[in-house]
Design goal:
- The chain is mostly helical.
- Helices cover 77% and strands 0% of the residues.
- Among the domains are: 131 residues, Serine Threonine Protein Phosphatase 5, Tetratricopeptide repeat, CATH 1.25.40.10; 65 residues.
- Helix 2 packs parallel to helix 4 and helix 14 runs antiparallel to helix 15.
């Protein structure tokens, strides 16, 4: 018994049609080929990306059916694929005279206008076309118009088009996915909240609407509300990994690190391991001062993103926080093989070297920071502090002066100059500098004292501080 296989029969029928077409083309047959059969032949060659044969079939079809708008549209499609955009527009004009109600006319004209860098014409065309169509065709045109506005860089109009789609079809998944991005991009969070609340009122089990609502709240930094919305999304779809991901970020913003870890680990249960998730979990452990666990997560992230020096720096920071200077240095050396002059890495390396009493090495690293980022006070602060600790007072005084010039007289460096002058025994000059610094920024006194706590044993220093405490609140 012969097995019934409709697909095989269709394939055999199409093979017969191609044979018939070849005979017709070469004058070996006078049999008639239907209009829709020509459409299938043209589609076949287009799918095979054989544009020469597709155009040949379109030309022959046009001779047989000169008043077929459908075949003219097919020909225009091939012309666009061949980058003959103006020719395509001319053909489409002919087709529109025969049948102005075919949506493909407007979509292909749009493609041609965009290729000719005439987005304004595409906008006018599609806006006029919207009044001619309803239902699915109108939705298709709105998506097309949104893409044109994207090319045109009128991003608010992209949002407007997607909003119009959702007004007509609240459950349209493509629009729901896209509007989430454009809400964030345009900052139209309040509108998005109203839109999605309306959708949820009508369709309370739409998890994408709940997700978008959460994202809009998150855009306004209303993290508690965003978490509530994400909770509804994962209640409807417990495998909604992006909801867990965003919820983790919201918990981090609220400094609820334990809860953040819980939901971020759920992401790895639902999707393949990601470096950014490992890094985020590591950040949470870091903030909870669980440095060993933070390192594990940062290392997992670095295995997936081996060229990112920042991850090695983060591992180094965990060692630094535990006072493990040698281990910190090893990680920094790895980071600095990738980015040698990154200021943060040099700063931390300098701090480690200083902790180990290797002052000359530390000075070198702090000098790197000052050279790379001369207007940043952190490098100058560390360099002067290191020179002071190493008792290189003359050099410290010189660098304090340089820092003052480059940072436009930041009061911190006046305090540091005062401390160095005291160490050099230049008491009168030091007290004048201290008074000047106290007059400008008394809150920085603690940095002055941290440099050398025994400085408070100097009665002249104590007198200056006491005088300012009486006159002003420090």
């Amino acid at each position: 018994m012969k097995e019934n296989n409709p697909y095989r029969e269709d394939r055999e029928q199409f093979r017969e049609l191609l044979k018939q077409y070849e005979n017709f083309k070469n004058g070996r047959s006078h049999s008639f080929i239907e209009e829709d059969a020509f459409e299938k032949i043209i589609d076949y060659y287009q799918e095979k990306e054989d544009l020469v044969r597709a155009m040949e079939a379109a030309e022959i079809a046009g001779e047989q059916f000169p008043y077929s708008s459908m075949l003219l549209i097919k020909k225009a499609d091939i012309l666009i694929a061949n980058r003959r955009y103006q020719d395509a527009l001319d053909i489409l004009e002919q087709a529109s005279l025969l049948d102005g109600g075919d949506i493909n006319l407007y979509i292909l004209k749009t493609d041609a206008y965009l290729a000719l860098d005439q987005p304004e014409k595409a906008v006018v065309l599609l806006e006029e076309a919207l009044s001619l169509f309803e239902g699915e065709e109108k939705i298709e045109l709105l998506f097309e118009l949104a893409d044109v506005y994207d090319d045109y860089e009128d991003f608010d109009k992209v949002f407007d088009c997607l909003k119009m789609v959702l007004d007509d079809e609240p459950n349209n998944e493509e629009a729901l996915y896209k509007i989430c991005f454009w809400t964030d991009f345009t900052g139209r969070n309040e509108e998005s909240i109203r839109l999605h609340q309306h959708i949820i009122d009508e369709y309370p089990y739409n998890e994408l609407a709940w997700f978008n609502l959460g994202a809009a709240y998150q855009g306004l930094k209303l993290y508690e509300k965003s978490i509530d919305a994400y909770q509804y999304a994962i209640t409807i779809d417990e495998k909604f990994d992006y909801a867990y991901r965003n919820m983790g970020d919201a918990y981090i913003r609220l400094r609820k690190y334990k809860e953040a870890i819980e939901v971020l680990e759920k992401v790895h249960e639902l999707a393949k391991p990601e470096d950014v998730i490992f890094e985020a979990i590591g950040h949470c452990y870091d903030r909870m001062k669980n440095y060993a666990q933070a390192r594990i997560c940062y290392r997992k992230a670095s295995h997936l993103r081996q060229d990112d020096s920042k991850l090695f720096y983060k591992i180094a920071c965990t060692y630094f926080n535990e006072g493990l200077w040698e281990s910190c240095i090893k990680q920094l050396e790895t980071a600095m093989k990738i980015h040698r002059l990154q200021s943060e890495y040099n700063l931390l390396m300098g701090e480690c070297k200083m902790q180990l009493g290797l002052f000359k090495d530390a000075v070198q690293y702090f000098s790197n920071v000052v050279r790379v980022r001369p207007r940043n006070s952190a490098g100058w602060e560390s360099l002067i502090r290191c020179l002071y600790k190493a008792e290189y007072f003359e050099e410290a005084l010189e660098q304090a002066g340089a820092a003052l010039n480059i940072t436009n007289g930041k009061p911190l460096f006046i305090f540091y100059r005062a401390a160095v002058l005291l160490a050099l025994g230049k008491t009168k000059e030091a007290i004048l500098q201290l008074e000047l610094a106290m007059g400008q920024s008394p809150k920085l006194l603690k940095k002055f004292v941290e440099l050398n706590p025994s400085i408070l044993q100097n009665q002249l220093v104590v007198d200056v501080i006491a005088r300012f405490k009486r006159n002003k609140s420090i």
